[in-house]
Design a protein that fits this description.
The complex is a heterodimer of chains A (1091) and B (328). Chain A has 52 helices and no strands. Chain A is mostly helical. Chain B folds into two domains: 158 residues, no CATH class; 119 residues, Methylamine Dehydrogenase, Chain H (7 Propeller). In chain B, the strands form seven sheets. Chain B has a four-stranded antiparallel beta sheet, with no helix packed on it. In chain B, strands 2-3-4-5 form a four-stranded antiparallel beta sheet, with no helix packed on it. A four-stranded antiparallel beta sheet of chain B has the order 6-7-8-9, with no helix packed on it. Chain B starts with 9 loop residues before the first strand and ends in a 6-residue tail after the last strand. The chains are: A mainly alpha (1091), B mainly beta (328). Chain B: Keywords: Repeat, WD repeat.
Chain lengths: 1091, 328
């Protein structure tokens, strides 16, 4: 574009325009010059700079009122000249500067800027901006001499006025930009760096403007939000730049105490100069503090993120440059900075983190005692206000409050101990944490949720494994907040405390709180857990590394003392349910010296039962135990393999809780076990238990000696059995013997507790050795089938005929029909049985069977216990014993013999529930001891049962709907339900079957209650299995739906009792049964017609 | 009312055989873990770590024959064990080694535990029942040279020696031997003259165990009867019956006076451990835990008195550890 490269050519081109403009100052002339400028190269223009500027300056200087448009275009034209050239003379710079400023000043020197058009203002500001950029370094510095102070002051006040009072955003921003250049803080890179002395000089100079600038800027910053974020951002930037320059610690440090005497001729000007002595800086800092406070308050919640980002920069800049001079303001500044860590905008967040990181890395806080004091003061006041804030704020507010707290702690870093060493600070902080962490303990469900499989007959092993997952913290419900983030922040607070703080001091203090009152116990435990995690550096997010990490022994020492406290009886055995058993166990007075799990002895008696334990208390206790269990998890994770040494004392209590009946506790404890496994390097809970069974067994055996601890010991054993396999048996055999011998000493009061153990022992044995019992099952059944077949005369008859036909066919020369080898199979099975029992008699009984025998022995004694629940449990255990002993007939039979009398009593004169269970036992027993039982059953039990059934039948037939709630009904039902299967199992003789059938027949009456009818039907269905023919006959005596034509005239006609009978009360049920019988028969022998 | 007796602090199990002898080694300084040695019927010597309460090593040196005496010689690295295979073994356990360095063939078939006395640095005297039925032989260890053989006078009919106790009044003075015999008598032997100084019939039955307090010049012995016998040694080296104490149940298999000479413990056939005050033989406690005969009792040698322990080994395969120092 540049056409004229040489000054001569350029001169030729520009001269006419310049001359014209000098003659007549019109818009057109200015435009012409402007157009001419465009065609001149920068180097050429540089030569002609003053020449070209002259007409423009002249135009401005012409006295009299001027057209605004003209002034504007002149100024713009000047700006374009200046943009292309450099100002190399100091005088020219000063003159231009003052002339441009004059454009904005009102003709009469009123304080307000002239009411000029916005375009003109903008043009002037931009021209000033350009001017400042076109001056060379040395030249520009000439502007910053004491002598030019009035001029500068004028410009500054003009620009400030514009930036504050103008409406147009662009003017405001340009004015601020221009000011920025004016105080030599331009963002662009063109400027030369000032050396120290120059900077000092400028600082001295600008100090005079500081009050004006800072006050005006603070007004701009806190002004209407509608002014746009850019203005605010620029204002903030300018603010911190000027403050950072004037109040720089480096500069202030070099200021002499007393004002230098300046040469006399400059004395007037020197009055304007400020001496930045200590007094001045102190008072200025105070004033700035007020301004900063206002600004920070306002802009930290500014809706636009760039403003907040700029605020972060402000804090950083001031912290870096004025950390001593502005120390009082940092309370606000740091608060804002720390608060912005959680800004919704990620850029602000990350910048904030960077700045914090920078602060920490430079050790600003660590080296600056005053700053640490400020932080600790802030911390103190925040801690004081925390409970109130937590009460009143919403979750978002709580998050920001807590992140503030966390930020303070992080910033303090290793200096945290200053805070902790002050009792008042520590006290406040603790109190605040205690109150904030208060749990909500109103949920009743936690108390109600019971563990499954505890009372059930068979603990499903699959679901037990399912429960053992990686231990996660149970979700807690807090009184003062619901947001998960709040809890995470609190966690971080505690961890950071643990990370930097003096662990002994903290642990000691919180242990004090823990034992001080029940109110704080849960919270204190929670805090302790997190402290330890933090001390070990687990899951803690900090700004700077601590100087020394605590050694393992210290950590272990603290952990051991906390663990001791947690597992202390008073804190471990809390009332968590109001079960009769549990309350019973608690009411047992603690006798004498008590053995703590794992050895540490203490003589604290168990907490005496409070008269009214509310759901709230129990909930609270449950949570406390859970938190303590989580603590154990955490300690294990911290210590890793080192924790193995602590298993001696820690494993037993955890297993105890894993067997707890409250769901939450047992689940937490299982999680803890999983965590311990992981920490100590065990593959599974089973490995953990097996490898440490010696510790557990020791605990169990010692605790069994204490009446009050027996239930716990049994829980531990129960848990061990649940979570392990047969390999555990040799390890615990010893202690099971202990259990049995302890049981022998206290049948009366502890029976139910021990039965639970026996039950779990037997369940485990069945589970571990069940397969061998199972085989035996099948054996027995196959024999039953084969015997059943022998009794069937119809089949014999059929076979006879078939054989006959086959023989005949063979005789005739046909090949024999392959298959049908049933008959061959029967003898080997029958032979195998006696062989088996012979060898068993000689071989020593395996240990699990010995145990089963020993348990069965105890069951005999307990079968007649006064408590129904105990009896029921005993019957369950008995059944399991029988199952385990199945393969060892030689041992089972004598035991069965001994059990029999007690069992008979259960069968014939006990609660229906017990009768039912006794039947189940009998059925299990029947599989093995068929011969032994058959006779005894028909002699001892059957007559009583049948007579009872017969005598009760009329009563139940008459009875109304209420009858089903009576004991008699339940008994009838129990007997009817059990009798059928028993008859089948025992393979009863014909006469006994007839007895049974007779007794049950009346219950087929429609007059009987429906459930009894159904039960009676079930009896007959079983009888059909045993002897279908006689059942058929019996039923047909009552009712015969079909007539039977003899196949041949020579045979006598069939006459059945039921033929031709009227429809009566039995008809319905009998027809139903006959139909079932027919179906069964046709299914068994397809194609065969009923006989 | 007196406190009820405490429970064991811990029970060590896992030897799977009856325990016949126990010996503590907890006195060393430094990071060494306190250790307990136990000898059991199946011929194993178990080295228990009292920190983890677990067996560190099991030593097998007596051909699966019952081990009925274990002693340390100096530190815990040198061990002496006596078994029913008629051998006394010397072990080197330093740096994880488990080797028998030397052994003495006793040729004695009895149950008499040997007795060890340190007479100088690296020099011990050991008394043991010899091949001939009534004789006691004293050897010097580790050289195994015979010092003397103690034969009762012809016709004394003492029977086999049942228990031995070597002692000396103070370091450097003449070592003496107390021996309990099958006929119930206790004999004081002078080793240098190989001569019986005094003989006292304490029991009607064989003396099962004895211990002697050289400071008070008083000793105690137990037998299969219901009696504990306390006897004293006067200036003229004569044994005199000082007192007898009747027990409820018969049979004492071991007696140990605590190193501080304040109390003593007995291991009873009635499954109980009894604690007495040594001065007046005041019964202090009956420790009831075992379910079979208690074979041995031993006090630990911890430097810190509050850590000291009592251990008892029993036929029921368990070793019970008690902390009774704090209570007395």
């Amino acid at each position: 574009m540049a056409v004229f490269d040489t000054p001569q050519e350029a001169f030729g081109a520009l001269r006419p325009a310049c001359v014209q403009l000098t003659r007549a100052q019109t818009l057109e002339n200015v435009a012409r010059l402007q157009a001419g400028l465009a065609a001149v190269s920068a180097s050429a223009l540089q030569e002609l700079q003053e020449y070209v500027l002259f007409p423009l300056r002249f135009a401005l200087k012409v006295p009299g009122p001027k057209q605004e448009r003209l002034v504007q275009s002149v100024v713009e034209c000047m700006a374009s000249v200046l943009a292309a050239t450099c100002v190399k003379k100091q005088e020219l710079l000063q003159e231009l500067f003052s002339e441009l400023c004059a454009c904005l000043s009102p003709p009469s020197s009123t304080s307000k800027p002239a009411s000029l058009s916005e375009e003109l203002k903008l043009a002037v500001i931009q021209a000033l901006h350009t001017l400042m950029h076109s001056a060379y370094g040395d030249v520009i510095l000439s502007l910053y001499q004491p002598s030019t102070l009035p001029l500068l002051g004028f410009a500054v006040s003009l620009l400030l006025g514009l930036s504050e009072q103008e409406k147009a955003k662009q003017i405001k921003i340009s004015a601020l930009k221009c000011l920025q250049v004016l105080v030599l803080q331009c963002d662009c890179q063109e400027h030369r760096q000032l050396d120290e002395d120059e900077a000092q000089q400028c600082g001295d100079l600008f100090a005079s403007f500081l009050p004006g600038i800072s006050i005006t800027l603070s007004r701009v910053i806190t002004g209407d939000i509608k002014q746009g974020h850019k203005t605010t951002v620029s204002a903030i930037r300018l603010f911190y730049q000027i403050v950072g320059l004037v109040m720089a610690d480096e500069q202030l440090a070099r200021i002499p105490k007393n004002k230098e005497k300046l040469p006399a001729e400059r004395s007037r000007i020197s009055e304007l100069m400020v001496h930045r002595g200590p007094d001045w800086s102190r008072s200025t800092a105070e004033k700035l503090c007020l301004l900063l406070h206002k600004m920070v308050e306002f802009s930290s919640v500014h809706p636009h993120w760039k403003v907040r980002l700029e605020l972060v920069e402000l804090v950083q800049h001031l912290l870096r440059n004025c950390s001593q001079s502005l120390v009082d303001s940092f309370s606000h500044l740091l608060k804002a900075l720390v608060g912005l860590v959680n800004d919704e905008n990620s850029e602000v967040q990350s910048r904030c983190n960077e700045v914090l990181q920078g602060i920490a890395e430079q050790g600003l806080v660590a080296q600056n005692r005053a700053l640490a004091d400020i932080l600790s003061e802030n911390l103190h006041s925040l801690a004081t206000a925390l409970p109130r804030l937590m009460n009143s704020q919403d979750d978002m507010g709580k998050v920001s409050t807590l992140s503030l707290l966390l930020g303070y702690l992080k910033l303090l870093g290793p200096k945290i101990n200053i805070v902790l060493n002050s009792t008042s600070h520590l006290h406040r902080l603790c109190r605040a944490l205690m109150q904030v962490l208060e749990l909500d303990v109103t949920d009743v469900k936690i108390v109600e949720d019971r563990r499954w499989g505890c009372e059930g007959t068979c603990g499903p092993s699959g679901s037990v494994q399912h429960g053992v997952q990686k231990g996660r913290c149970q979700k807690k419900y807090f009184r003062f907040f619901t947001e998960e983030k709040v809890f995470q922040l609190l966690q971080q607070v505690c961890r950071v405390l643990g990370y930097y703080g003096n662990l002994y001091l903290l642990v000691d203090h919180f242990m004090g709180l823990y034992s001080e009152s029940g109110m704080y116990r849960k919270q204190a435990a929670m805090v302790l857990n997190e402290l330890i995690a933090g001390a070990a550096g687990v899951g803690v997010d900090v700004l700077q590394e601590r100087e020394t990490s605590p050694n393992m022994d210290d950590l272990k020492g603290s952990i051991v003392s906390i663990l001791d406290e947690y597992t202390d009886q008073a804190n471990w055995y809390l009332i968590t349910s109001i079960d009769t058993e549990v309350s019973h166990e608690h009411s047992v007075p603690c006798s004498g010296l008590t053995a703590c799990p794992g050895g540490a002895c203490s003589s604290v008696p168990l907490p005496s039962p409070e008269p009214h334990v509310t759901a709230r208390t129990m909930n609270s206790n449950i949570w406390q135990i859970c938190i303590q269990l989580e603590g154990v998890s955490c300690f294990a994770a911290v210590l890793g393999k080192e924790f193995r040494l602590l298993l001696l004392s820690a494993l037993y209590p955890v297993l105890e809780k894993a067997g707890d009946k409250t769901l939450l506790i047992s689940e937490t404890a299982l999680g803890t076990l999983a965590d311990i496994c992981e920490a100590c390097g065990y593959n599974s809970v089973q490995c953990l238990i097996n490898d440490n069974s010696d510790y557990l067994v020791n605990g169990i055996s010692l605790n069994l000696r204490q009446l009050a601890h027996q239930p716990h010991a049994s829980q531990v054993l129960d848990t061990m059995l649940r979570h392990s396999d047969a390999s555990l048996l040799p390890l615990v055999e010893d202690v099971i013997q202990d259990v049995l011998s302890t049981l022998d000493q206290s049948y009366s009061n502890q029976a139910s507790t021990f039965l639970r153990v026996l039950h779990s022992v037997m369940t485990a044995l069945v589970r571990w050795f069940g397969s061998s019992c199972g085989e035996e099952h099948q054996h027995g059944q196959s024999r039953a089938v084969s015997q059943g077949q022998q009794a069937v005369t119809r089949q014999e008859l059929e076979k006879f005929f078939l054989d006959y036909i086959r023989q005949k066919q063979i005789a005739e020369g046909n090949l024999p029909d392959p298959g049908d080898e049933e008959t061959d199979e029967v003898p080997p099975v029958a032979k195998l049985e006696p062989n088996n029992s012979d060898t068993e008699g000689e071989a020593p009984l395996p240990s699990h069977a010995q145990l089963a025998k020993a348990v069965m022995e105890r069951c005999i004694h307990l079968l007649s216990d006064g408590d129904l629940r105990v009896r029921l449990k005993v019957l369950d255990v008995l059944e399991l014993c029988v199952t385990v002993l199945h393969p060892h007939g030689n041992h089972l039979l004598p035991m069965a013999h001994r059990v029999w009398p007690a069992l008979v009593t259960r069968l014939i004169s006990d609660d229906p529930l017990a009768v039912l269970r006794a039947f189940k036992v009998l059925c299990t027993l029947a599989q093995k001891c068929r011969d032994f039982l058959r006779q005894r059953f028909s002699k001892d039990v059957l007559p009583k049962l049948t007579s009872c059934l017969l005598s009760q039948a009329p009563a139940s037939a008459r009875a109304g709907p209420v009858y089903s709630h009576t004991l008699a009904f339940k008994l009838q039902l129990a007997v009817l339900q059990g009798l059928g299967s028993l008859c089948e199992k025992l393979d009863m003789g014909e006469s006994d079957l007839n007895k049974v059938a007779d007794a049950c027949l009346i219950y087929l009456s429609a007059k009987q209650p429906m459930r009894l009818q159904e039960a009676a039907q079930s009896v007959f269905l079983h009888l059909m299995h045993v002897d279908p023919d006689s059942t058929w006959l019996l039923l047909n005596k009552l009712c015969c739906p079909h007539g039977y034509e003899p196949p041949h005239a020579s045979l006598r006609p069939v006459k059945l009792g039921g033929m031709g009978r009227q429809r009566d009360e039995f008809t319905h049920n009998v027809l139903l049964l006959l139909e079932r019988l027919r179906q069964r028969e046709s299914a068994a022998t397809p194609g065969a017609a009923p006989p | 009312m007196a406190l009820p007796p405490p429970d064991p602090q811990f029970v060590l199990r896992g030897t799977s055989a009856a325990i016949h002898t126990l010996h503590f080694s907890c006195g060393s300084q430094g990071p060494d873990v306190p250790t307990l040695f136990s000898g059991s019927e199946n011929g194993f010597i178990h080295v228990w770590n009292l920190k983890t309460h677990r067996v560190d090593t099991a030593l097998d040196g007596h051909g699966r024959k019952s081990v009925y005496c274990v002693e340390t010689m100096g530190g815990k690295d040198r061990l002496l064990s006596q078994g029913r295979d008629q051998r006394i073994c010397l072990w080197d356990l330093a740096e994880g080694r488990t080797s028998v360095t030397d052994s003495v063939f006793t040729e004695n078939v009895g149950f008499c535990r040997c007795s060890l006395l340190k007479v100088a640095q690296g020099r011990w005297l050991m008394a043991m029942a010899a091949k001939a039925l009534e004789e006691v032989q004293v050897l010097e260890l580790p050289s195994k040279t015979s010092v003397c053989t103690l034969k009762p006078e012809v016709g004394a009919k003492l029977g086999m020696p049942m228990c031995l106790k070597l002692w000396q009044l103070n370091c450097g003075s003449q070592p003496l031997l107390l021996a309990g015999y099958e006929d119930g008598s206790v004999v004081l032997w002078n080793l240098s003259m190989a001569k019986a100084l005094s003989q006292l019939v304490c029991h009607q039955e064989p003396v099962m165990s004895l211990d002697f307090d050289s400071e008070k010049a008083k000793g105690i012995s137990g037998s299969s009867e219901k009696v504990l016998s306390i006897w004293s040694l006067n200036e003229q080296q004569n044994l005199q019956v000082y007192k007898t104490h009747r027990l409820v149940n018969a049979g004492i298999s071991d007696i140990t006076i605590r190193p501080d000479k304040k109390i003593l413990a007995t291991a009873g056939w009635d499954h109980r451990i009894r604690i007495f005050g040594w001065k007046k033989l005041k019964p202090l406690a009956v420790l009831d835990y075992h379910t079979a005969t208690v074979h041995c009792v031993s006090f630990s040698d911890h430097r810190n008195p509050s850590e000291r322990l009592l251990a008892a080994g029993s036929k029921d395969h368990r070793i019970s550890i008690w902390s009774i120092y704090t209570q007395t």
